[in-house]
Write a structure and sequence with these properties.
The chain is α+β, with helices and mostly antiparallel strands and 127 residues long. The chain contains four helices and three strands. InterPro entries: COMM, COMMD1_N, Murr1.
Length: 127
């Protein structure tokens, strides 16, 4: 079952794998193969999601909201009435309570962030 789950086998791969296991000396019986196949068909998605959640190092981005506001107060008078982006991110794992991170970006920081995200996208596309 560990080999089936780690390879995330589809039904054709599963059938070939189980057939090979029944023919192998000291392998499984055809009845055992049928039970394993039925179990995998019924629980494949849950098992796959569980393995993914176990392999994550840390929190994941669950949700993100944003808005644009105008600064009403500032230490410097020239920053009043300038637009700022407020970004709220919900971070966490499925079974745990979420954490919220709130960020404020001026126009230059939004441009910098978009540039970095574009670089990430290009890097992912090339892979």
């Amino acid at each position: 079952l560990q080999s089936i789950a780690s390879a995330d086998m589809d039904l054709n791969q599963l059938e070939a794998f189980l057939t090979a296991q029944t023919k192998k000396q000291g392998g499984i019986t055809s009845d055992q193969a049928a039970v394993i196949a039925k179990f995998w068909k019924n629980h494949r998605i849950k098992i796959h999601e569980s393995l993914i959640n176990q392999s994550r190092w840390d929190n994941v981005l669950k949700n993100m909201n944003w808005r644009v506001d105008l600064k009403a107060q500032s230490r410097h008078i020239d920053q009043i009435n300038t637009p700022v982006a407020i970004v709220e991110m919900e971070l966490g794992k499925n079974e745990q309570e979420s954490e919220f991170l709130c960020l404020e970006f001026d126009e230059a920081k939004v441009s910098q962030m978009l540039k970095k995200l574009s670089e990430i996208e290009e890097s992912m596309t090339s892979l």
